[in-house]
Amino acid sequence: MTITKTLTLAAAAAAIGCSGAAMADSHGGEEPQDQALVILTSGSLQTQGMAMILSNAMQQQGTDLHILLCDAAGDLAVQGYASAEAINTPPSNPAGQVKPEGILGMLMENGAQVDVCAIYLPNSDHEEGDLREGVGVAAPGSMAEMMRDPSIPVYSF
Does a structural domain hold residue 48? Predict the structure, then answer.
C-alpha cells in the first residue's frame, strides 16, 4: 500500500471514528500489544493533525499509545479547546475536515494514555482542573523510563 493511500485511510478512519478495537485479530487469539510514545510539541495545525492521524493508524494496528503534549500542543489537552481551523482531508476522504483535538479525544476513548508535560501547567494560564477528563500530568521519571526503554519507540512532532 502506498504511503499516500495509507495516510488517506488513516485520515478517513480518524475522521469517521474508526476504532482499533473493532479490528479483528487474524490469528484468532490475543497478541501482546506493542507500545509507542508520541511526543507532540508543535503548535502547527498540520503537524498536530498529522501526529494525531499517524497515532490513530498505530492504534488501529494494535499499538498501545502514550501521548505526551508539551508547549503549544499542551493546549489540545485543555477541556473545551478548539483549533481555529480544521485540517482539510484528501478529496478521497468523505469526512472533509478534522481537528487534532477531535482525533485526540477518539484516541483517548480507544485507550491512549495522554499527559501534558510536567512544566506545561506552571507555564500556562491553566490548572490541572482545566484538563480534559483522563489527561494526566507526566512525571519526568516515568517519561524518562519510557524514553530509555529500547522496546518503546519514541516519535516526536
Answer: yes
